[in-house]
Amino acid sequence: MKNLIKTLILSYTLLFALSSIAGNLPKNKITIVIATRAHARVVFGAHQLAGALTSAGYAVSTTQQGVLPKTGQVIVVGKVGDALIIKATSAYQLPLKKLPDTKEGFSISSSKQQNIVISGIDNSGALYGCMELADQIKAKGKLPENISMTDRPEMVLRGACIGLQKTTYLPGRGVYEYPYTPETFPWFYDKALWIKYLDQMVENRMNSLYLWNGHPFASLVRLKDYPYAVEVDDATFKKNEEVFKFLTEEANKRGIWVIQMFYNILVSKPFAEHNHIKTQDRNRPIIPMIADYTRKSIAAFVEKYPNVGLMVCLGEAMEGEGQDDIDWFTKTIIPGVKDGLKALGKTDEPPIVLRAHDTDAPTVMKYALPLYKNLYTEAKYNGEALTTYTPRGPWAELHRTLSHLGSVQIENIHIMANLEPFRYASSDFIQKCVLAMHNTYESNGLHLYPESSYWDWPYTADKADTRLLQIDRDWLWYKEWSRYAWNCHRDSIQENKYWSGQIANQFGCGQKYGSDILEAYNQSGEIEPKLLRRYGITDGNRQTLTLGMFMSQLINPERYGLFTLLYNSEGPEGEMIGEYAEKEWKHQPHIGETPVAVLNDIVIRGKKAIAAVENAAPGIKTNKAEFERVKNDMYCYNALANFYAAKVQAALQVLKYKYSKNIADLEAAIPYLESSVSYYKQLAALTKDTYLYANSMQTQQRKIPIGGNDGKNKTWAELLPMYQQELDKFKSNVALLKQNGPEAKMAAPLKPAEVELLSQTGDYYNLGAQQSVFTDTTATATVFDPVLKQLKGIPLSKAAQVKEGTTLKFTSKQPVKVIVGFFNAKDKQYLPEPQLETDASANDYGQAEIKIANAVFITGLPSVNLHTYTFPAGTNTLTLGKGACLVLGFVDGNTAVPVYDAGMNKGGANRFLDALFN
Question: What is the pTM assigned to this prediction?
Fold first, then answer.
């Protein structure tokens, strides 16, 4: 510490000498005084303050002797109650201020002689007091006179996250399985980049950094009992230790907790191979060996890196809600942390954040809080998107429940699958979102994802000679969320002035032009949220909104696994496209935000965004290349808005035909669909030379508008021919319909494949033979899609499925697809459909997509949607979670199972609409 102070003194003496040589004499001499054994955060804060003063032309010296100089201007920094602060307050005759009784609060007071005392409620408060005074010096170019203020953050935890994950899977590994290696994450070892990022965090007053990874322990700790579990070589392991120690120490100086996230239950690949198990298996029960390995991994991690917290994701890699979640958290994870503390001889509990994802977090916390006090919960604000500042419904109820547990609820701004890759910096939208976090969710923490390209950290999707860094391009994104996490109750008029000034500084363009650019950001900032919440399929990252949607997805979203929270929670009350069309036909009044109101609004906002950014163009003096990118993004927003507006109008015409049976309604859709393709051509042209991709997740988890397997279908140029083809098919089908009448072509019956069952009796049922579909009930199919009439279904015990799940072992000489029927109801007695929103493994066998919706009806039971699981030739096992489902049979693996809504409950009406685009 003494060496650090000596270095600081020497550096500022040198700066003073250089400024004198240049003829730029300092305005005044200032001494910064901190306590002899000041905390690293206080030392860092004094360093930042000294830098701001030096840049403003002051001669600065720093002393850590705890003695007040008798001459010259003095700034004293410390904690409330410290002897140095008490001495300075008395010597300078300053009134004793009552600080807010919250962590990280501070006061700044100046005396008549302009000596200043910065006192923090804790070390972080002293640090933030220094940062505040430094900001004022930078803004005014001098030390403020007669300063007297107190401040504190509104949110307890204010954090950002970095994913140690990739755009695609590593060879031979599953989702989330990414060891820490220089080959996979070269940026992880770049200390200069870490310093730059941490400096931005502390400048924004963030106090937590989340590192996301499936199983980080095998890259960071060795276990005596499981030496084979480490999955990096010795040299890499040593580098990892060094970097992680460096990172946590540098973060600590800046008042930042490093919080390591991990998934459960997930083990390292060497551990799995050594013990002949899978690295992750959602349907696997808790195994004592895995529990012991995980507990010891956590203990070793806590012992080795004491200034690190943990974030626990119980869902995704272990099955849904239930006792296993409670047991794993209370009998493995918390004891592991306590073991690590015991080994350290410490009692201060590091934070543990329970991610309320695919788990019953309130129940888990009920059992956990008596065991461990420093607990937090975290849940997604608008799912994996940004859709509204008026959250409501069951999702809001969950957040309020979490907020009332007695711990702190953290709001996660997650993935932003509807925003990427374009720039987003609507300060107005973001401030309102943070207000909603307090007022609607009653939460008190922020966990912020990158604005886009999460899976491609640290780079953006921009196509440039040198890849752009997210922290450079999206500095406004981080600064806006951070500013409002500290205090969201700020005057909107003053905020516009503040942000206009910030943008003006970026482009050297003056306040007026900065205001124009802010206006462009605020207008464009409403477009993508409104598009997704009114037209989308899901709030998850299986949908990339900016790549568009196909007509069948707009007309019949249920067929694509509609995620209902998007409509009942993540936007104002309103109507979906199908609801609007039905009410129009029936002349019923509309409710709330309608699809037509949204399309009219976004078209206007697109035009306003372009006008505003063009107004700013003449004033740009610096960072001209970046301004051109901002301007191009506004044109992209405009083209995207018009594409969707035209396509939704086409969809409404097609849905009108559903009721009218008037071909003229279909013909009226054609000009709108042509217009949508024209706007998409604009979008493809605007992005061709400016973006590498639309989405950074380039795996089989991405499904809408089309699958993203092997990094395909990630650019607008790839999608454009598909939208043109959709238009051409529609025009052709409308012409045929006009000529031949409304008969929809039926798909050929699926033919059963030869398969030997190894875990069943070998009995089968046939839907057409009125045979029972379960072994322990008399339930038979009353209505079913004729395409299924030749299949040989496997009767299973419904009671056993509900209690134990479904396991079907079989062998075949050729690849096969298993056709599984999921009951279309949210009830614990039924197996939930594969859902990528909560289960990252939900498409490992190609099962995520509904193939035939509403294909089977059984008296007294919900309708049945069909999915397919693909297996190679040989012996395989189909393992499904708890809940009743149908196994309708096997088909050849090369069979193209048709995709449509059979609509057996509606006379096949939806099937006919789907056929218009096939």
Answer: 0.90
